[in-house]
Amino acid sequence: MCRQYGGHKSRIQIRRMKCSCGRLHNELPDCLVPHKHYACTVIEDVLDGVSTPSDLPSEDHPCEATMGRWQNFLKRNTLRIEGMLRSIGHSLLGFSDELLSAGISLVEFLRRMGSGWLPVLVRPIYNAGHRLRP
After folding, report:
1. Which domain holds residue 83?
2. Per-block average pLDDT, block size 10, for the chain (134 residues)?
3. Does some domain include residue 134?
4. What 3 state SS string does the chain have?
5. Closest CA relative to residue 91, chosen from 53, 129, 117
6. How many structural domains does the chain have?
């Protein structure tokens, strides 16, 4: 179940795929973040400061404590995300050596690209079989 703005809930079907190694893997759709009940757009708006607790007074939206947990999740995992993105970016995504060795934060680079940065950041990590601390 995925919660979106306005209290709308939708069921998301998660594809399971069998790897050549014989293990089953769940494919993360770009509208979800693992272990989170809200859609990526809601979480992203909170992390970017677009949505604040005063903007979302309805019980259909995340509470202030939930928003704080999302912000702490990003802070706790930023270094891990950087390392994983650099590794995956080099081996799977074809990031240029110039970008990977530029000394800039890939997390901040993606965030500056505008809305939609969160799934671009999280999806390759989970679909490559890596995990972040919840």
Report:
1. 2-127
2. 79 84 81 86 90 65 87 92 83 72 83 89 82 81
3. no
4. CEECHHHCEECCCCCEEECCCCCEEECCCCCCCCCCCECHHHHHHHHCCCCCCCCCCCCCCCCHHHHHHHHHHHHHHHHHHHHHHHHHHHHHHCCCHHHHCCCCCHHHHHHHCCCCHHHHHHHHHHHCCCCCCC
5. 129
6. 1
